[in-house]
Amino acid sequence: MTTMSITLNQQQQDVAVGINLREIIMLYELQEQGCVFAINNRVVPKSEWKTTQLNDGDAISLFQAIAGG
Questions:
Q1: Does 20 map to a domain?
Q2: Is 69 inside any structural domain?
Q3: How do 3-8 and 59-64 pair as beta strands?
Q4: What gap in Å lies between CA 37 and CA 23, rounded to an integer?
Q5: 5 contacts 13 by C-beta, under 8 angstroms
Q6: How far apart are the first and last CA of the chain?
Q7: What is the enclosing helix (H) or strand (E) of 33?
């Protein structure tokens, strides 16, 4: 398996070449509900998670909605 390096929430990870954002979410068991994912500071709509392929050096950030009062 050929791998590439990405950054996931400021942690370097080696993943398979050709992996998409949806697969990353499943692989690392990331929370989906109430979350927004950005790749290289660009928010990726949920409708594009399966089709957004990652590239070597990409930085993925996870933002969770916080309820307040």
A1: yes
A2: no
A3: parallel
A4: 13
A5: yes
A6: 48
A7: none
pLDDT in tens, the chain (69 residues): 799 999 999 999 999 999 999 999 999 998 888 889 999 999 999 999 999 999 999 999 998 877 766
Who's near 65: CB < 8 A, 6+ residues apart? Answer: 34, 35, 36
Name the pTM for this structure: 0.85
Maximal CA-CA distance, the chain = 48
The residue type at 58: D
Amino acid at 31: Q
Looking up tokens 């998409």, which residue turns up?
20
Q: What is the CATH number of the domain that holds 11?
A: 3.10.20.30
Please count the helices (runs of H) and the strands (runs of E) in the chain: 1, 5
Phi-psi group of 22: left, alpha or beta (phi > 0 → left; psi -120 to 50 → alpha; rest → beta): alpha
Q: Which domain holds residue 38?
A: 3-64
